[in-house]
Automatic annotation (TrEMBL):
It comes from the Bacteria. The lineage of its organism: Bacteria, Pseudomonadati, Bacteroidota, Cytophagia, Cytophagales. InterPro entries: Fic/DOC_N, Fido, Fido-like_dom_sf, Fido_containing, SoFic-like. Residues 110-260 form the Fido domain. Keywords: ATP-binding, Nucleotide-binding. It comes from Roseivirga seohaensis. This is Cell filamentation protein Fic. The keyword Nucleotide-binding applies.
Length: 363
């Protein structure tokens, strides 16, 4: 099988009329979601669990098994079965890479260099960390089932010189204003996967770029528009639609699939964000009324940033003095704001869970 030759961007073969029904709706929903984001006083606090859930689901597409609860429990206690530890670190790295991308974009625009740095963070100390993290591949690779070779591979990405040329073209296209920004995003995501510039981690890197591109284009105020929930639930359609581009050269089904993903996911994101905002206001009153503490807001914010935690995590995250931590946590358990997830024994700490938030994120 010969290495694939990607089309140059912007695409000249697109039939824009095929997407009119979905373009308007997708743009409206994203704008509505962004309007809601602008009303969130501290998105870093309120939407932290959604970022972790995105990392869990994007990594799951690549075969990891760790759940949101397992990742949060590990962060609370740093204990997990050996077979899960690698999966958990992949999820944590995903979150780190996404945050690093956002932070670097505050100083300079999205670029191939910033993508290489994110990739290095993504692959740090996990599966694939021996595959040249942070560098574009220098050898030909291919995608196929275990035991297959380049002759019977499912897909052979571009050769190195073609890959480099396609990457520079792709980077240039990021900074172009195409006719519709969401169609442009669909093309950017697919073209990145087709170019397959790294030896490992291309799928996750491509999905990290979805919210970052919308942030780069100032379509959303914070890079928190995540699609992995939809892509994981429709994994075979996701791969089939991408494969159709390289099999037949037709982008229509892929772009329609992607715009539909944006519509469905935006609706879900809007619902979850509203529920989180409402929970925040409800629990603010519950904590103030039950604890009468001057630390009630610090306490509240800490629950949203880390909804599964030990008293040690809680003290560190909230900056509440140790002398007040035990009383506060006991009061919150008594008033059913928190549950005890694991009772402490010996040197092992008690692990607390803020279930109402976890239920929203998991739904």
């Amino acid at each position: 099988m010969k290495p694939y030759q990607p089309e140059e961007l912007p695409l000249k073969t697109i039939e824009w009329g095929q997407f009119i029904d979905l373009m308007g709706k997708a743009n409206r929903y994203v704008a509505r979601y962004d309007g809601l984001l602008q009303s969130v006083i501290n998105p870093d606090v309120l939407l932290a669990p959604l970022r972790t859930q995105e990392a869990v689901l994007s990594s799951k597409i690549e075969g990891t098994q760790a759940t949101l609860e397992e990742v949060l429990e590990f962060e609370a206690d740093e204990k997990a079965s050996d077979h899960l530890k690698g999966d958990i670190w992949e999820v944590i790295n995903y979150r780190v890479a996404l945050k690093q991308g956002r932070d670097s974009m505050k100083e300079r625009p999205l670029s191939l260099n910033s993508i290489k740095r994110m990739h290095e963070a993504l692959m740090q100390g996990v599966r694939g960390d021996s595959k040249d993290p942070g560098n574009f591949r220098r050898i030909q690779n291919y995608i196929g089932s275990p035991g297959s070779n380049i002759e019977n591979a499912r897909f052979v990405p571009p050769s190195i010189p073609v890959m480099l040329e396609a990457l520079y073209n792709w980077e240039k296209y990021i900074h172009v204003d195409d006719k519709d920004v969401l169609v442009q995003l669909a093309i950017i995501h697919a073209q990145f996967e087709i170019i397959h510039p790294f030896l490992d981690g291309n799928g996750r890197m491509g999905r990290i770029l979805i919210p970052l591109f919308l942030y780069h284009k100032e379509i959303i105020q914070e890079p928190v528009f995540y699609l992995s929930d939809y892509l994981e639930s429709n994994r075979s359609d996701y791969y089939d639609a991408l494969k159709e581009i390289t099999d037949s050269g037709s982008w229509t089904n892929w772009i329609r699939f992607f715009l539909n993903a944006i519509i469905v996911q935006a609706e879900k994101n809007i619902r979850k964000t509203r529920e989180i905002i409402s929970l925040y206001e409800t629990v603010k009153l519950e904590i103030a009324n039950s604890t009468h503490s001057q630390f009630s807001i610090q306490c509240l914010d800490s629950l949203f940033v880390q909804p599964i935690f030990s008293s040690r995590n809680f003290e560190k995250n909230s900056q509440i003095p140790r002398s007040s931590v035990a009383r506060l946590l006991n009061t919150l358990v008594e008033n059913k704001v928190l549950d005890i997830a694991q009772k402490g024994a010996g040197r092992r700490p008690t692990i607390y869970a803020f279930r109402r938030l976890l239920n929203i994120v998991n739904n």
